[in-house]
Amino acid sequence: MSKSNLKVYALRLRPNQDLNQELDNFVKQNGLKSAFIMTCVGSLTKATVRMAFGGQEENEVKVYQEHMEIVSLVGTLSCIGGHHLHISLSTKNGQVLGGHVFGEMNVFTTAEIVIGECEDLAFKREFDPASGFDELVVCPRN
């Protein structure tokens, strides 16, 4: 277990901004090396998500184009190797859907996001043969 000081950032995205791209820009502009989503509320008109899979199945990517509320956004962010985010969305009928943030996420009215960063740590991603994916590695910050 690692212990670290915490720094907090807050930002608001506006209509038609791409949540995924804006988070990537924010992390790079601020040099964040070990950030994570603390909370996010807002709405989208488009969401591109990768669905969970098992065994040797292909990753299925779904694109939703409708007004949806952001119920939850969780995950890690880093300018070293990228981010890993999952999202839950609610449709106008109250159906909840979600998956791995994979592409375009167009803001409808707003996205209010609070980001934390562990100041003494760095997150990076390395290939893990057990999972077959680039997975989180937590390191002391140099």
TrEMBL record:
Top-level lineage group: Eukaryota
InterPro entries named among the record's database cross-references: PPC_dom
Record-linked CDD domains: DUF296
Pfam annotation, one family: PCC
Domain PPC per the UniProt entry, residue ranges: 3-139
PROSITE patterns: PPC
Listed PANTHER family: DNA-BINDING PROTEIN, PROTEIN, PUTATIVE-RELATED
UniProt name for this protein: Bifunctional-like
Gene source species: Brachionus plicatilis
Biological classification of the source: Eukaryota, Metazoa, Spiralia, Gnathifera, Rotifera
